[in-house]
Each structure stands twice: as structure tokens, then as C-alpha cells.
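Progress note, sequence design subtask.
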């Protein structure tokens, strides 16, 4: 099986530890049964000889859990950046966005819906979407979705952009027409370079790679992203990209970073609060809240009052996250500590304090993560963070343990959602 795991690493950059060797072994055994093979060595030889079987194995191990507007803060932040920065700097031209991996299309279509609902005219932007899985791309192009692709409580976008039918919800042709899909592996030298992009969404992919493959992926993203372009990643991936030429933006829970501008280079985006009128159509009422809310980069610790007892934990920690994203680590840590004095049993609080301390190279960050796991052994983000720390510290066995726990939790949650 080690030979097959290495083949998967070579083919798609997959670190077997990220999803658990047992998951790969189960998948391989199913493929062996389908091909009538008894020994792993026989299947390894087949992989070397058959491109079709390599594709079948890749399709079987691809992690494709996704849904529309997953982590809404990222889409809200995109709209703000486009309206407040990109459009004033580009009275003409086309905004180009890449979604990779795009899976079955929920993310790139969410990007289109967010921009259209904010009033951006279709001719002013284009979304391109790539995935290694041909099957996933087929589902994305078909654009018919079941209830599992719609989560949360706000389904107003579904009423605006989908048609209900016996097979599910079919996406409107206007939204579909804004996305171009293509097959590609971001870590491959053969990844198609179709354009340079203003924005790249590459969320929850890096966590499945080992460190050399993470570097290859980020080098590729750097080449594809325009100077001063913006990269959106997953929650556990933010610490990875700060060492690869990206500076976090001051938007809480969006996990957005800007490509560092090389010395002597001109900025592609410039900050402005004036929106080019010819680029914007009539926006729905909800979109006004995007441009009228205060910028999180303006939040200071003095103005961020501690919440009253009646306020929620989420609001308190969100403020601390905003401070941290804006680079105010000392103030963010102080706010987390104050919160934890009153809410010592909050796993989310200890997790966020760990992130803040780790960003400040504080050696006590791991203690915070361990407290979070003591309070909630199934805290998914903390498990991933501990796996990343273990890898960085050269402890692959510990990293495998944490990733295995996280994968079991993710798989269990997915089954629960499907059953409900």
C-alpha cells in the first residue's frame, strides 16, 4: 500500500495522512475488487500501466464535501473588496476570479451569485473554476443540486437563482453562464494558465498536502495571481500562507490575504470608497449592508467594548478575530483572555487565543489548543491546527493522529447531514 500512497502523492499531491491511510486502503480494496485483483502489488502495477485506472482511483479518493455560500464571510468580504477597491481602480476591464478546487460547482456559482446580487454587471467579471475530478466537473456543468448543497438558514439566494424540480434545484442560466470550468491539478506543471487572476479562492485544499506539495501549490498560486491580488483560504490554512508572500487582510473570519507587492512594483488595486457607476446595476436591499458596514481594519481595542452578559460568545470572539486579522495581536490576545476569564469552558475561545498567540510566535499557543481539545475533543479546527503544528515540528506520527481524528469527525458529520 505504501507504493500506492506514493503514487497518489505523485499524481495529485495527496498526503495520505491528511485523510488517513485506512481511508485510502478501503478505497484501494474496492478498486481491486472491481478489477478482480487479489494483491496490492498487482494493483500498483495496474496503476503504472493504466491512465484510466489512475483516474478511477483519483475520483474515488477526492474529498468533495461542499455547499453553497460555505463560510459566508468570505463572499461578503469579496463583495466589499470589489466595490470599494477593484471597481474604482478599474473603470473598464474584467474582474477575473479563479476557484480551485471547485468540486461540483457550489463555490464558483456562489461567487457569481454574490457579485450579481451586489449589483455588479455580468460583463464586468468572469469566474473560472478548476478541479482534478472529471466527475465533479460534470456535476458542476449540469448545475442541478439536492438539498445537501443548501445549508444554514438563509435560502433567499435559492429563491432568486434556482428552479425547483423533481430532480432537485436547477441553477439559472445567467449564473451558469458566468463560470468556465476546466480540469486541472493545481500542483501539476501542466495546470492550464488561462489568465492571471485578481482573486483566487483555494479553500480547504492545502490541508491535504504535505509541506513540499503545499509549497508547490502556493508557488503556482503566486504565478497565477496578479500583483497585489487577493487569496482566500480555509480557516486552518491561514498560518501556512503568511510564510509564502501573503499578508492577511483585516476581515474577520474571511481568511483573506493579499499578495505581497514586490519592491518597485505598482499596485493593481488601490483603496477608494467611490464606486464606478457604470459598473454597478441596481443592487438588492441586502447588498447595501455590505458597503455601509464599518471596515474591520478600523477597529481598535479601545473601541471594541467587551460584550455584556447577554451578548453571544460569537460576537465577542469575532471582535477578537477582527483585531488579530488587522495585526493587533496584543489587543486580540487581551480580549480573548478577558473573555476566557468569564467563559473558561469555551473551546472556541481557547482555540482563537491559540491562533493569536501562534501568530505572535508565543510558545504557549499549543497549551491553548490542548485546552480547547480537553474541553471539546471533537473541535475540528483545533485538530487540524495541531496536525499542522506537529508537521512543522517534524512529528509526522502525531500529525497523522490528529488528522485521522479530524477526518473521522468530518466523515461522521457528513453522514449525519445526509441522513437528516
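Output:
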Amino acid at each position: 500500500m505504501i507504493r500506492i500512497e506514493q503514487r497518489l502523492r505523485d499524481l495529485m499531491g495527496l498526503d495520505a495522512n491528511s485523510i488517513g491511510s485506512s481511508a485510502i486502503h478501503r478505497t484501494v480494496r474496492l478498486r481491486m475488487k472491481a478489477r478482480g485483483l487479489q494483491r496490492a502489488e498487482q494493483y500498483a502495477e495496474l496503476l503504472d500501466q493504466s491512465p484510466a485506472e489512475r483516474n478511477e482511483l483519483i475520483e474515488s479518493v477526492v474529498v468533495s464535501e461542499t455547499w453553497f455560500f460555505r463560510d459566508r464571510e468570505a463572499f461578503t468580504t469579496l463583495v466589499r473588496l470589489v466595490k470599494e477597491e477593484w471597481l474604482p481602480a478599474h473603470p473598464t476591464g474584467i474582474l477575473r476570479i479563479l476557484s480551485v478546487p471547485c468540486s461540483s460547482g457550489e463555490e464558483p456559482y456562489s461567487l457569481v451569485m454574490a457579485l450579481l446580487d451586489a449589483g455588479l454587471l455580468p460583463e464586468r467579471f468572469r469566474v473560472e473554476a478548476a478541479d482534478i475530478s472529471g466527475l465533479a466537473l460534470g456535476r458542476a456543468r449540469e448545475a442541478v443540486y439536492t438539498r445537501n448543497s443548501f445549508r444554514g438558514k438563509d435560502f433567499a439566494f435559492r429563491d432568486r437563482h434556482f428552479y425547483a424540480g423533481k430532480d432537485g434545484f436547477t441553477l439559472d442560466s445567467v449564473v451558469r453562464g458566468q463560470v468556465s470550468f476546466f480540469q486541472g491539478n493545481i500542483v501539476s506543471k501542466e495546470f492550464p494558465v488561462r489568465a492571471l487572476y485578481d482573486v483566487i479562492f483555494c479553500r480547504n485544499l492545502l490541508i491535504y498536502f504535505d509541506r513540499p506539495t503545499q509549497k508547490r501549490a502556493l508557488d503556482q498560486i503566486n504565478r497565477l495571481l496578479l500583483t497585489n491580488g487577493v487569496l482566500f483560504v480555509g480557516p486552518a490554512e491561514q498560518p501556512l500562507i503568511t510564510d509564502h508572500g501573503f499578508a492577511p487582510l483585516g476581515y474577520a473570519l474571511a481568511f483573506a490575504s493579499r499578495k505581497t507587492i514586490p519592491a518597485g512594483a505598482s499596485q493593481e488595486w488601490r483603496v477608494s470608497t467611490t464606486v464606478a457607476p457604470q459598473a454597478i446595476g441596481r443592487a438588492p436591499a441586502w447588498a447595501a449592508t455590505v458597503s455601509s458596514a464599518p471596515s474591520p481594519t478600523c477597529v481598535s481595542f479601545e473601541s471594541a467594548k467587551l460584550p455584556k452578559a447577554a451578548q453571544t460568545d460569537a460576537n465577542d470572539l469575532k471582535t477578537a478575530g477582527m483585531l488579530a486579522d488587522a495585526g493587533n495581536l496584543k489587543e486580540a490576545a487581551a480580549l480573548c483572555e478577558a473573555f476566557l476569564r468569564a467563559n473558561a469552558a469555551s473551546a472556541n475561545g481557547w482555540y482563537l487565543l491559540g491562533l493569536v498567540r501562534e501568530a505572535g510566535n508565543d510558545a504557549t499557543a499549543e497549551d491553548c489548543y490542548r485546552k480547547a481539545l480537553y474541553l471539546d475533543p471533537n473541535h475540528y479546527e483545533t485538530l487540524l491546527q495541531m496536525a499542522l503544528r506537529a508537521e512543522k515540528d517534524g512529528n509526522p506520527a502525531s500529525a497523522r493522529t490528529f488528522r485521522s481524528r479530524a477526518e473521522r469527525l468530518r466523515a461522521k458529520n457528513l453522514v449525519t447531514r445526509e441522513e437528516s
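The mean pLDDT is 79. Work on this subtask will continue into the next period as scheduled.
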